[in-house]
Amino acid sequence: MRTSSSESSKFVRPHCCREASRLLRDLPDSPADLLHTNTLEILPPHPGGLWGDGDVLVSMRELDTIAVLDLSAGAVRWWWGPDELSGQHQPTMLADGNLLVFDNGRHRDHSRVLEIDPAHRTVMWQYRANPPRTLFCPVAGGAQPLPGGNVLISDAQAGRALEVTRDADTVWAVRTLTAAGETAQFYRMAAVPDHVTAAVIGPTEHPATLAARDMLRCQLPAPIGTSR
Predict the structure, then answer these.
(1) Which of 12, 66, 75, 155 has the smallest number of Cβ neighbours within 10 A?
(2) What are the CA-CA distances from residue 205 to residues 51, 111, 130, 197 (Å)?
């Protein structure tokens, strides 16, 4: 944290950062990726005043931590995660100021989705599969809040996405397969409104869409059950 103009001038020295990264890359076991910041979201002000307009929500996977930073002040406004999160992705601020995050669970062998009350630093809601091991995505993936309160979960390494309710019911699920019938992994799926889809595809299907359809196909299986 910066507390004075003199300290501020020392806070960031790009040439030192590059040299430190070079030295770390030369060490065994690739320790150069100290943070692996996989999310950066510019926030509106928190309803309870925990952070201000323009502060930044980040996810640091290697630290099992999500945090809100005031970049202009060089200050950490809020943080949470160690001993709770494990290799998380895609924290998102909800309208009420809570945070939704996909907890990959790489050290516990199952993934889950958490809603966190940042003011009280408590888990308000969570989704886990039943049994928990049937949703395990140690790398990539995410959870997107949908209008109405449902959540779109990206089970990336299984090539699967599913929409779940707050009662943990599965609304639908989709799995991506190659033309050979093999599971096609992806990084993350995102919900796109109908009017955006229509504008992108247009009245005639785009060649890129046709090419992707030749390589991939999607299965819409029956709802895969409920979980708590």
Answers:
(1) 12
(2) 44, 36, 39, 11
